[in-house]
Structure formats: C-alpha cells, structure tokens
Specification:
132 residues, alpha+beta, three-stranded antiparallel beta sheet, single chain
C-alpha cells in the first residue's frame, strides 16, 4: 500500500521521484519531534546556497515545520537545530494542525457557519453607501 501511495500521491510522505532524488543527492541533517526528516543537497544554486527539503511524516503540511527548523529551511541560519541545543522560546506555541475548511475551524459569533448572534454595532460606524 505504501508503494502505491508513493506512485499516485504527493501529499502522503514522499513520491518515488523524491525518494530517488533524496537517495542520490540528499544528506540527512536531522529529524524533528513530529517525525519530519530534513535533508540537504550537495550542489549549490546560483546564489551559492544548497537545496534543503523535508520529508513529512504523514500528510504534507508546511505549517508542520517547527520554528527552529523553519529558520534552517529558509537559510536564516546555517546551523540546524540537530547540530545545536535549540530550545523554543516561551512565546513560541506548539504546532496545531490547520483546521481551515473543517468543522474545527474558527467561526466568530454571528458568522453564517456559527451559532449565535452578531454583536450589535456601537454607533461609531456608519456604513458606506454609493453617492454619499
């Protein structure tokens, strides 16, 4: 079943092409607490940077990259979190899945998809009408 997923889907882990490219050109750099595995290529681009990529553990969701690895992926730092003693700051929140489009999505009071009433207008707002 895993082999068929690699042939026909790109959102579940890696494809056959990505697996071959990673095997051929990638160097494993590290793994995060979510099970995502990070790689770095050997060739340099026109700006002198090496290509970096991630193989997601399960569903491919870009927001599933922790802050430390995000900085490394975007060449903000050359030292990966696996090579240093990276500790998240107290203001950095743990990852939460993106619930947009699902029943768990945020719906403010008064929206069409939520129960409740819209808050009353306080009078400090006048609606625009054409010609006024």
């Amino acid at each position: 079943m895993n082999f068929l997923k690699q042939i026909f889907t790109w959102w579940n882990g890696q494809t056959i092409g990505t697996r071959f490219h990673t095997w051929r050109f990638g160097t494993r750099v590290g793994e995060d607490e979510l099970g995502n595995v990070y790689y770095q290529g050997t060739a340099k681009d026109s700006e002198g940077r090496t290509r970096r990529w991630v193989i997601y553990n399960g569903y491919a969701e870009a927001s599933a990259i922790p802050p430390g690895w995000h900085g490394w992926m975007h060449h903000r730092t050359d030292v990966s979190p696996a090579d240093e003693d990276y500790k998240a700051r107290e203001w950095q929140k743990p990852h939460r899945q993106n619930h947009t489009g699902s029943a768990l999505a945020y719906r403010p009071p008064g929206s069409i998809a939520a129960a409740g009433e819209r808050p009353r207008v306080t009078g400090d707002y006048d609606a625009w009408t054409p010609g006024s």
